[in-house]
């Protein structure tokens, strides 16, 4: 396999972070106004997608926490229902993902974004894993009871830091995630939270949708010290297609980022920490989408740009899913 189209057709292309509409998600089996639905995945050769049960950060009172927990549980059940067991298979392990790909079925995976939805109840982690979730993003925008976030929410009463990184509950949550087989996602976490999580977790952590701070100074991006920590702990950064993470916008304007800028971030991370610690994601329907990869139907364009820069079949397999499958296996092994 030498040309990009042939490599793309054979590769298990996995997007590790795609949001869904809630509470009324469209029928993903039909063409929709969303950036990701199954027809677009088929046209673009996107074989697998991690759909996200996202809960926004709100007040941490009993009512707010209960609502977040209820929403996350319902979203996970809905995501699982999108798979029909035939053309679309639900996958919760690397082996299931690879078997579905071999059978030429689309792969549906799920995860939870924002540990606030735990509602301070660590037993919910086992429930989420039983429902098929593969990771938990510790925070979203705004501190929660687990950890400090990269972007505090002053309107919710946040200061620059609340816990100095992870809270005691956050540390206990990571231990429980290791026990039940959930990966720890450090996207959205403050640097202090991310570094502590990477050091504490028995399974390498992943930033499922982040970019490189050296190329774009955004609070959600990872600096060189954070990237080096991922290499030192066998972790992973999934470079994402969110324009403001890729290239700074001119004053008062929109970021001019394109798929070439995304490939620049991939190049930088690979040069800094090695091909084994870098992957790809879109954050589609959560803000992601750039010229060249505006939706799932254009997934081939990213493969073509990376191939043009010298990434061959082996490297593209690692970037698209091989590295993430390694972490999935490590999480399953740690739980066993």
From TrEMBL:
InterPro entries: Metal_Hydrolase, Pept_M19. GO terms for biological process: proteolysis. GO terms for molecular function: metallodipeptidase activity. This is Membrane dipeptidase. It comes from Neoroseomonas marina.
């Amino acid at each position: 396999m030498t040309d990009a189209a042939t490599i793309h057709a054979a590769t298990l292309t996995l997007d590790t972070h795609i949001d869904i509409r809630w509470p009324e998600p469209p029928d993903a089996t039909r063409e929709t106004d969303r950036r990701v639905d199954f027809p677009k995945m088929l046209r673009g050769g996107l074989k697998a997608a991690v759909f996200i049960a996202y809960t926004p950060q709100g007040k941490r009172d009993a009512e707010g926490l209960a609502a977040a927990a209820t929403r996350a549980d319902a979203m996970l059940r809905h995501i699982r229902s999108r798979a029909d067991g035939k053309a679309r298979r639900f996958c919760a392990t690397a082996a299931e993902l690879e078997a579905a790909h071999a059978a030429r079925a689309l792969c549906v995976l799920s995860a939870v974004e924002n540990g606030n939805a735990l509602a301070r109840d660590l037993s919910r982690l086992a429930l989420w894993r039983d429902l098929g979730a593969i990771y938990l993003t510790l925070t979203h925008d705004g501190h929660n009871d687990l950890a400090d976030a990269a972007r505090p929410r002053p309107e919710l009463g946040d200061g620059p830091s609340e816990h100095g990184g992870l809270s005691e509950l956050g540390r206990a949550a990571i231990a429980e995630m290791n026990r039940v087989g959930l990966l720890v996602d450090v996207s959205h976490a403050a640097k202090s939270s991310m570094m502590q999580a990477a050091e504490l977790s028995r399974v390498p952590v992943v930033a499922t949708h982040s970019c490189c701070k050296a190329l774009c100074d955004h609070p959600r991006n990872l600096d060189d010290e954070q990237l080096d920590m991922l290499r030192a702990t066998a972790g992973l950064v999934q470079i994402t297609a969110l324009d403001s993470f890729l290239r700074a916008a001119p004053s008062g304007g929109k970021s001019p980022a394109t798929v070439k800028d995304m490939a620049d971030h991939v190049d930088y991370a690979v040069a800094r920490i090695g091909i084994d610690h870098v992957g790809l994601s879109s954050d589609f329907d959560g803000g992601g989408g750039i010229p060249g990869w505006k939706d799932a139907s254009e997934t081939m364009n990213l493969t073509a740009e990376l191939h043009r820069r010298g990434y061959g079949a082996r490297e593209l397999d690692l970037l698209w899913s091989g590295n993430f499958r390694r972490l999935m296996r490590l999480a399953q092994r740690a739980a066993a």
